Fold:
Amino acid sequence: MRPHKTLLFLISIFVVLAIISFVFPKQGVRIGTNTLIRFSDINSLFTIEKQKYADINEILEYHQSDIVDDISEIVKDTLADDEVLNNDTLDVVESNDSLAVVDTIKTEKKPRKEKKKSVKRALEYPKENSKVLYPFFKKLSSLKKSKELIRVLHYGDSQIEGDRISSYIRNELQKQFGGSGIGLFAPVLIKGTNISIEHKLTGSWNRHTMHSIKNGTIFHKRLGVLMSFGRFAPEINDGNKMYYGEINLRKSNLSYRRTRKFKKCRVFYGYNKGPFIAELKYKDQTLDAELIPVSYQLQTLSWDIDGALDEITISFKGEDSPDVYAIALDDDRGIAVDNIPLRGSSGIDFTRTDLAFLRAMYQELNVKLIIMEFGVNIVPYLNKNYSYYEKQFYKQLKTLKSLRPDISIIVIGVSDMSRKKDGEYVSYGNIEKIRDAQRNAAFKAGCAFWDMYEAMGGYNSMPAWVNADPPLARTDFTHFTWRGSSVISKMFFEALMNDYKKYKSRKK
Structure:
C-alpha cells in the first residue's frame, strides 16, 4: 500500500473511532450482569489530568519523625553476628515475596526535635459513650497491683501479617503496663507471618482452618482462639503407627527486646484419642517430659522458662496427635498482645466455629480486649450497598462480646487502597461504604471504632504513603511497609492512650 493511502486509511479509522466516542454512552453499556463495555472519551486523549493525592505532610512531620527516633535510622541492610540490637528498636526491609527483616543500629544520638502538635484521629464511640472501653481501662489501671496477666487479641487480615502493627502496640503497652513475650502463635505458621520468633517444624504437621471445615477434612468446628490448629498425626490413624513432631523456637534478634524476654511457655491442646509424650528441650538436653493421657477437652501444658535460654524445642510423640491450638510465650504478669492474621478473611467466620470451645479458650486466656482489623479483602468486590457485610460483621462482634462479660472490642476500619485508572492510582470508590458498614456494625454491637482510612489522609492517601520517602506503603497500593505499619500503629496507640488518660482523670 502506498504511503498516502496508508495515511488516509489511518485517518479514516481515527475519524470513525472519534464519532463512536461521541455517541457512545459515557456510563458504558452493560451486557448481562457481569459485563460492562466502555469506550474511551476522545477528549481524554488530549487532556492530561493529574490526580490529586492526599496531603500527608503533617503525618510525616509528626509521626514518622518519632518513628525514626524510636526505631533508629537504617545504617545498613544486615548486621554482623557480634552487633546487637538497641533496646526497643527494629526495622524491616521488604522484598517482593515476603517480609525480610534487618536490625538497625544507632551510630550517633541525635538531639530530639521539639514535638509538634500531634496529628490525631480519635477513637469513636456509639452515642459518644466512651464507657464501652472502661472495663479494659479499669484492668490496665490495676495491673501493677493485681499482678495478673491479661490479653489483647489482635485479629486482622494480611494487613497485620508478619506481626506488623501488633508488635508496635504490644511493645508500647508492655512498656507502660508490664509484660513481655510474643504472646500466642499457631504451631504451624504460614510462611513469613511472624518475624518476632524463629520457628522450625520437624515431622508431618498439618494445619487446619475454616477451609478444613468447609471441605470436610475435619469433622468438628473446634478451631479455637487462633481460628486454626495443628496436628503431627493424621485425623484418622490407620493402625498402631507411632508419630512424632517437634517445634523449635528461637528468640528473634529482629524484634523488640521485650518480645525476647518471655518467662513462661504454654501449649493449648486437647481431643487426643490416645496418650502421647510431651517434652521440653534445650538443644539436646531434656528439661521436662510428661506422659499425657487421653483427653476430650481443652488442656494446657505449662513450663516456666529461664529467660537466659535463647531457644527451646517442644517435642511430641504418640500414636495419635492432640489438636494443638496455640503456643504462648508470655510473662507471668502484665499484658500480652497476640498477632492473629487470618489471610483472605473479612472477619465473618467466628460464628461458624464451636463457640462453646472458643469461650473456654477466652476464659483460660483471660482476654480483656479484642482488636478487629479487616476490610482489604472486600474492597476489590464492588457493590452498591454493603448492608449485607454490616449485618454479618455485627453478628461477629455481638457474638465475641458475649463470650466474656468484661470483653471490650475496638474495630479498626479498612485502610485506603488504590487501583489503576487511566494510568494513575486512585482510591477504590467503595472504601467509604465499607468503612461506614464497619462503623455501623461496631456501634450497634457496643464497640469502639477507629477510622484508619481518615487517619491515613482519606481519599487518595495510599499513593502518598507509597511515594513517601522512605515509603510507608508497598507498591501493591494495599499493604503498609514496616515503617508505615509503625506510623499507623503509633497513631492508633496515641488515640487509645489519650482516652485512657481521660478515663484516669475522671476516676480521680
In short: The chain has three domains: 3-45, 121-179+333-508, 185-327. The radius of gyration is 26 Å. The chain is about 30% helix and 25% strand. Residues 44-48, 68-115 have pLDDT under 50 and may be disordered.
